[in-house]
Amino acid sequence: MPAHIKRRDNDQWYLIDGSIRISLKTDVKRLAEARLAQYQHGKFSIKAVPAVGEYFEKWIEEQKPLARPSALRDYSQHFSTYVLPEFASTLMDAVTVDRLSSFRNKLLTRGLSLKTCRNIIDASFRAMHKRARVEGVISQNPFELLDWPDMPKPIPQPYTMAEMAAILAWVKKNEEFYWPFVMFQFETGARPSESTAIKFGDVKWTQIFIHASRHLKEERATKTRHARRIINVGLTLAAILAEQRLPFFGDQDPLFYNKYGRPLNAEHWTKEYWPSMQEELGLNRRGFYSTRHTFITEQVKAGKNLKAIADYCGTSVQMIEEDYCARLDLVVPEMTNRTAEPTTVPEPQERPANVIPINRKLIGGRR
Question: Which pTM value belongs to this model?
């Protein structure tokens, strides 16, 4: 079929010539016909619109040096398993809100949760589509027209103080090698990815500089700009952390390592130890991230300044108010309002001479 124009559902006229399809950005037919005449006389050049599968191959290669490993993993899985089987041969400008809506319903009928469907469509697929718009490959954004029902946000699941004590006692007795790591999580509320990225050079006795995160064996910047921070720890924890450093470790070696002396992988460690430990203690199963929930919850319950808590944990006051104060029905005293002055970070203290060192001998075994 020779080059021609066709009106689409959005009332815009498109010029079509074989695999070439481009919006003429007008709903006036005579203007579209004029553009067609220009095109036929070589006075109006357009580029072919690629198919979704073709553009994905180019886009995913561009993401490899830029995106986090976890994001690359999700992109690859979402596209290979769900998006490409449905859209691989579809031209990029033919991805409409109706197609996306049908795709979402199809995923739901396959048993996927609404959250998973949204991750596939509104995160992975949309990220690629946005890049295509930036490059001028397409102009329309059907994703902004797709309605999503509200999804309930998971409620934090902190441990009680008794449960925390039981966990620390179990780790001390059964896996003492990793006791400093678990203690650090409960005492600081740091994200596990942040803790495993800390180097010995980041520790200045009671002060610790958090500026990176480690996930899937790769280190990147912290999750948010709030997460780049300096935290202060107590003397007891500082002494425990000091014993982590063996003579042959340098400033660039990890503060937390496995029994082979390699950087600790929080995800692997959690899968191997955390579920069985909770089962043995008779606790309701919660993720390792609940150590962070525990720290923040206890700080709020103690009446600490919300801004100070947010700064220490690398998050926002709004998150603490919405996820903890409101959702956990915690009472927030007047002293913790937004306008109160945040607590200051105390000066580093000298290491006490009577601290009994922990045996950090490396042994073979689990991670």
Answer: 0.68
